[in-house]
Write a structure and sequence with these properties.
Radius of gyration: 26 Å
CATH superfamily of one domain: Phosphohistidine domain
Shape: globular
Distance between the termini: 30 Å
Structural class: alpha/beta
Largest sheet: 8 strands, mixed
Helix content: 40-55%
CATH topology of one domain: Glucose Oxidase, domain 1
CATH architecture of one domain: 3-Layer(bba) Sandwich
Bound molecules: phosphoenolpyruvate, magnesium ion
Strand order of the largest sheet: 1-8-7-3-4-5-6-2
Strand content: 5-15%
Amino acid sequence: MSASSNDAASSSAAEIAEAGPERVLEGISLSPGIAMGRALLYARASDGVEHEVINEAAIEQEVALFEEALERADRDLQRIIAISREKLGDDSTAIFEAQRMMLHDEELVTPVRRRIREKRQNAGYAVKAVMQQHRHRLEASDDEYLRERASDLADIQDRIIRQLRRGKMSAEVGEATIVVAENLGAADVIRFNNRGVLGCVSEHGGATSHVALIARALEMPALAGLPDVTEHVPDQAPVVVDGHRGRLIINPTPETVDRYREQQARHRRRRKEHQELVSLPAETKDGHRIQLMANIEFREELELVEQYGAEGIGLLRTEMLFLMRRTISLSEQMQYEMYRTIVEAVPGVSTIRLLDLGGDKMLPLAHREHNPFLGWRGMRVLLDRPELLRPQLRALLRASTHGSLQLLLPMVTHRDEVVRFNDVMQEVYAELQADGHAIEEVPPVGVMVEVPAVALRPDVFAPHVDFFSVGTNDLTQYVLAIDRGNDLVANRYDALHPAVLELIQRTVQGAHEHGLSVSLCGEIGSEPHALPILLGLGLDAISASPTYLPPLKRVLRTIHYANAEALAREALCAADATEVHALNDEWLRVHAPKTMDMRAENRLSSDASEPSTS
Ligand code: PEP
Ligand code: MG
C-alpha cells in the first residue's frame, strides 16, 4: 500500500482523545511522504539475548545449532536477494549479497565457534559478542562510510539470532502499521514493505544509509535521528510520519489528522495534474523553450526519467553506483554494463558525471583532511589517481556507442585540469581503438561550475569544453563561504543570493558568446518559486529530481520569458538575498500566483500548529 493512499489513521475522535496529548518529535527525513497508522514497537531479535554457560556435554550440539542457524540465515538472505532484485534492481541488491558474504566470512564465524567451545557460551550470546566487537571497531572509524556499514553487521547478527530462535520474530509486523525501532536494517525495510507496513521510524540512521536509499526506492516514508524514540512512542499509539519535514507526530489531534489527510489529498490531486503536464513542451507562454532534465543517482530511478517527462539526464552522480557496491574500484566491465543500461534506457542525452569523491562524499582511501570541502575533491582526485579515472573513462567511452552520452567533470578549478583530462581521454580513446572497439568519436565534455574561478572566467574554459553545468549546491557554499551541510549556518545559505545569481549570469553570457549551452543541476533548480529568476538569467536547461519536473513545467508554462528576464535583471541589482526574495515574491504574486499558493499550502500543512516539540 502506498503512503499517499494510506488512510490507516482513521482513528475516531474518541480514540484519539483517549490516546493522550499530541506530541511532535523532530528528526531527519530518510524518505519523503506521509504515512499515518498505529505504532508498532519493533524489538530486534538480539534484544534480550543473555549469557548462559553451556554444559560440557552440550557444546557440540550448540555448535551444530549455530551451523544450522547460519544455513537458514543464508537461505533467508537468498530470499531477500530475490525480492530485492525484482523490486529494486541489481545495485540495491549488492548490499544483501555483501551481507551474504559476511555470513560466510571466517573472521566472523570462527570466533563464534571458538567462544562456544572454549568459553562454553551459548550460541546467541557468542554471536552477539563477536559481532559487537567488529561493530564497535567500525563505529569508531573516522570514515562515515565504514561507520554506516556497522548497521549491516547488526543486521547479520539479528538474522543469525532470529534463526537460533527458529525464525521467531521479536515482534510480528502487520499491515497498516508504522514500525518504530531503535535500529533498522535495509533488509527489515524490504520485509516490512512486503507486509504492508506504511512507514518506518528509528532512533539511529543517516540520510545516506542503505535504509534511507531503500526506503526512498520503495517510496516508504521514513525518519531517523529521534533520540529514545521507542520510549516516547507507546505501542499501538496513533502516529503520523511526516517524511517531508522529518517529524513524527504522536497521538495526533483530529485537526492534525485532517490537515495531513488534506495534504495527502492535495498531493494526489497534484500528481494527477502533473501527469497531464508530462507530454507538454517545456516552454513559456511566449514560446521560449528550455530543457527540463533529470538528476538521478540510482539505476532504479531510470524509469522515472520518462515517467516525469524529462528530456534526458542532466546529472547522473556516479558516486552512488560505487557506494552501493561498497568499493571505489569497480571494474571497467561492470561500469560499462551500468552505463550502457543507462544510455540505452534514456530517450535523450545522458549526462554522466565522473566520480566526485571528497567533500562530504566518502573517500575510502586512507585519508583525512582538516578542510575537505577545500581539499582533495572531484577532478583533483581523479587526475591524481589514474587507477580511478581510466577504468571509468574507458567504460564511459565504450558505453557512448550505445546511445547519446556526454561527460561532466566535477569540481574543476583550473583550466589545466580540463586540458589534462582531455589528454587522458584522447589516450584512452586511442587505446580502445587499438583494442578493437569501434568508437566513432569521443563524447562531448562539460564542466561543473561549482567554483567561482570557473564562473568568473567561463571564456577561459569554453575553448576546451562542449557545455557548462552550474552546480549551485557547491557554488553557493564557495561564494558565500557557508558550509552547505552545517545546520548552524543553514539559514544563511541561499542560492538566490545576488552574488550567486551574478555568477550564473556571467557563466551564461560567457558560454553563449562561444556558442555553448549552460544547464543548472543544483538543488535550487527543483524549487518552482526559483524557476522564473533562473530562466530569466538565460539558462538553457534545468536538471532536477524527476518528481520535481512537473511542478517546474507548470510554472514555466504560465509565465512570459520577457517578464522573467526583467525579474532577473532586478534581482541582479538587489543588495542581498532578502531583497531578492521580496522582489521574487512580489513578481510571483503578479505573474504566477499559483506558485505562491503552493508555497503557502506547504507552509500551512507543515507548520499550521506547532505543538510541544521535544
Ligand atoms: C552541486 O554542487 O550543485 C552539484 C550538483 O553537485 P553535488 O551536489 O553532487 O556536489
Ligand atoms: Mg557539487
